[in-house]
Amino acid sequence: MKWFTSDLHFNHTNICGPNISSWSRGYRDFDSVAGMNTAILKSINDRVDRNDELWILGDFAFGDKTQIPALRRMINCNNVHLVYGNHDQAIERNDGYQKLFSSVQYYKELYISDRELKNGKRNRLRAILFHYSLRVWNKSHHGSVCLFGHSHNTLPAHGGRTMDIGWCAHRRPLSEYELYERMINIPIVEVDHHNAQTAQ
Fold first, then answer.
1. FRET pair for 86, CA 20 to 30 Å: which of 3, 9, 63, 65?
2. Going by C-beta distance under 8 Å and a sequence separation of 6 or more, which residues neighbour residue 31?
């Protein structure tokens, strides 16, 4: 089964909670970075099986980047894929860090399935994986979905089959079955550029 999350922000002091040096209290209510890291790891390891696929849509870690290998090893899943976010430069620049993941990329398309077999097959939806929210995306007018992070559950909904799957929004990874069930009932936003009139 495939699972999806984003913006784990391991080791990020300012996002975790109380911090007198920060201009804001942070998005997450934890007393310490260690407590936040533990909660993130538990939310993953309690759900994602060792042989599942876990897709992280950016911003794996923020603070001490030397701990990236140790943090990755604490995720039990063998098949962890990373779609780069704006805070993943340390992984982008380090071949050793990249090899900690089953794949690394800036953008990915794959299929998510429902849980019921019909005529020996499962229904599927094309999913676009990107760190940033998109207004239109490949096959959006045919019902594909766009999964993103980056905004930490602060971006107003703008219609269509799109969702912030970041850790701030859900406090856990979401399964492909759950996403399919949520997305299949969202109306498709029709965007047909083929009929657009060229400006004179």
1. 3
2. 17, 18
131-143 burial: b if 16+ Cβ within 10 Å, else e: bebeeebeebbeb
Identify whether 195 is part of a domain. no
Let me know if residue 126 belongs to a domain. Answer: yes
Q: Does residue 19 sit in helix, strand or coil?
A: coil
Domain tally for the chain? 1
- Which three-class secondary structure state does DSSP give residue 35? helix
Give the pLDDT confidence of 143-163 residue by residue, as tens digits: 999 999 999 888 887 778 999
Three-class DSSP category at 38: helix
**Cβ–Cβ contacts within 10 Å for residue 106, how many?**
13
3-state SS assignment for residue 83: strand
